[in-house]
Write a structure and sequence with these properties.
- The structure is a single chain.
- By secondary structure, the chain is of the alpha/beta class.
- The protein has a single domain, classed as Arginase, Chain A (3-Layer(aba) Sandwich), CATH 3.40.800.
- About 40% of the residues lie in helices and about 15% in strands.
- The protein has an 8-stranded parallel beta sheet with strand order 2-1-3-8-7-4-5-6, sandwiched between helices.
- Helix 9 links the parallel strand 7 and strand 8.
- Helix 9 packs parallel to helix 10.
- The longest helix is centred in the first third of the chain and has 20 residues.
């Protein structure tokens, strides 16, 4: 089974200074992968390309693109109180979204069974017209639309297991029956969305599924809820492509979260997602990095996830 790894050292140039979402996150991930020489050499290593404005604008406004570009060019250090930027952040964010598109290309062109884009800044909090929550452009949303436009994907399933609810991804697809958004997350918690009664609107009603978890929820209850949800989703929405908003701040011990998952749980969830993709979508899974802020554990957690992807 071929797994593509999409990465560029340029992602380290998004300089957020003393901030939880900082370049050391990718450094510890890449180091952990490289130390597993068998896995590292097995991966198909790819370089991303910048996303176009046109690709972004299928999900987010041109006004937002202009705002982020202008803030970076003028040297403003923050978009908001949470979201740090630097002069290079606009270009790096376009490269991050572009990495997700390269991952889509690989799985639809048959070059890889699945792919992981190790990117920063993350994306799932970015709404159609607002950058927030460490996020500038919504990498997974842009990838979903790209797959629909360029490869005719009728049904895209986005699975978000980050500790924080992906309010941006939900908002972008809330009325769209062709993209199913499924999230497990700590609740109540930032950003305040993700209640169980948020299920979509209009034609999109029923294609949003939120499973809120209280802080300290046992790992067994968490994983069981996740797996049961996958079964129910598959019955009504067999996907052509699965995109994972892969946030690892839902692991036990993360400084920004209170959930209790362990590395083995991420491996189990990854394998079940792959099984679903094999049955319904030709095995097509792409994983895009979101959160995860414990530098002592993050590298090994992601390595475990990538090992599961690689079969």
């Amino acid at each position: 089974m071929t797994t593509a790894l999409v990465y560029d050292p340029a992602f380290l140039e998004h300089d957020t200074r003393h901030h939880p979402e900082n370049p050391d996150r990718l450094r510890v991930i890449v180091s952990a992968l490289q130390q597993d020489e068998r896995l590292w050499t097995k991966l198909q290593h790819l370089t991303p390309r910048p996303v176009s404005d046109e690709d972004i604008m299928r999900c987010q406004s041109f006004r937002l693109i202009e705002q982020v570009r202008d803030l970076c060019e003028t040297g403003v250090p923050f978009v908001d109180l949470d979201t740090a930027i630097c002069s290079k952040s606009f270009d790096v964010a376009k490269l991050a979204a572009g990495a997700a598109l390269v991952a889509v290309d690989q799985v639809f062109n048959g070059e890889a069974h699945n792919a992981i884009a190790l990117v920063r800044p993350p994306g799932h909090h970015a709404t159609s017209n607002r950058a927030m929550g460490f996020c500038l452009f919504n990498n997974v949303a842009i990838a979903a639309r790209y797959a629909q436009v360029h490869y005719g994907a009728d049904r895209v399933l986005i699975i978000d297991w980050d500790v924080h609810h992906g309010n941006g991804t939900q908002e972008i697809f809330y009325r769209d029956p062709s993209v199913y958004y499924f999230s497990t997350h700590q609740y109540p918690y930032y950003p305040g969305t993700g209640a169980a009664n948020e299920r979509g609107l209009d034609k999109g009603e029923g294609t949003t599924l939120n499973i809120p978890m209280g802080a300290g929820t046992s790992r067994s209850a968490h994983v069981e809820a996740f797996l049961e949800a996958l079964k129910s989703i598959e019955k009504r929405f067999p996907p052509d492509l699965i995109i994972v908003s892969a946030g690892f701040d839902s692991r036990r011990g993360d400084p920004l979260g209170g959930l209790m998952l362990e590395d083995d749980d991420f491996a189990q969830m990854t394998k079940r997602v792959m099984d679903m993709a094999e049955r319904d979508g030709g095995g097509r899974v792409i994983s895009v990095l979101e959160g995860g802020y414990n530098l002592d554990t993050l590298g090994e957690t992601v390595r475990t996830h990538v090992e599961a992807l690689s079969g």
